User: What shape does this take?
Amino acid sequence: AVKANQMNIVNFASATDGAKAQGFTIAGNRVLGVYRNDFARRMLAASVAAGIEAPIRVYLTEGPDKLATLSYRAPSTMFAPYFDDGGEPLKTMAGELDVIFAKIAADATKP
Assistant: This one.
């Protein structure tokens, strides 16, 4: 779903993998950092301070029923504290990312 929406997984972390390496079993989870370089350049041109929010995190968790849940915060929510600094260019970019991330979530969770 990430690739189909022309984005990239730029990093990931998994407490499940870490626990397994130490001999423990916990419910599946993985955090994916999703972004794209052209958005990074636009974001930094608008607000260097906003860079702390990139990449946007997508959280995958396994429930007791073994079904997965996908969670994320809308990019406009993540970047909102920097709108005074980044102005319209940052607001516009965040809105574009909102659409992309909603599509990623919809594509990833469709039956």
About this structure: Residues 83-109 form the longest helix (27 residues). Residues 3-109 form a domain with the TATA-Binding Protein fold (CATH 3.30.310.70).
